[in-house]
Amino acid sequence: MDEIIRNIAVFALPVLFAITGQAAARGYIARRFGDNTAYAAGRVTMNPLVHIDLVGTIIIPIALYLTTGFVFGYSKPLPIDYARLRNPKRDMRWVALAGPGANLLMAFLWLVLGLLLAAFGVSEEFPHKVAEAGLFTNLLFFAFNLFPLPPLDGGRVLVSLLPDRQAYQFAKIEPYGFFILLALVFLKVLQFWILPVMWLGEKAARLLASPLIFLLG
User: Is the pTM of this model over 0.85?
Assistant: First the structure.
């Protein structure tokens, strides 16, 4: 039990900011492409309090961690009116990609934090564990959100790329997407997508951090 509580404490901030960052990024990009809804609702912010959903941000991540070891969650639904985007089908793609893009950026920042902690000789174990958890969590969210199934970002990207008729048919999956995802998680099928995409994301983050790695090496 002590180990479970310790692990939840380590992952708490990384999960919270991973969820917050991706929501704020989507709202910001939506505003850039013409939809001010999320901004007007105060959701384009890194303040986690305005994004927290009791079920999606707290209960589901803890329950998944305790039952599967898999950590995932979501924020309160982000108010985006796709019809207000200047080119709804095209711009939907960029709004969707903003979420995983934010997670990849945060993975890079947690990686940099870990490198700096090591470089400055910080001996306390907890901040190192948090930095590792931040890198892992954001790479996981990056890969998970890119999975091509609505309502995930990857599903919205695929809808934006398909011809209109096929996009309309594919988008009909969205009401059932969450239950399909849960089934894929518990059947351990999703790992065949997530692990390779996480590996690619980590390679990208380390490439971005290579100048710092060189300097500290």
Answer: yes
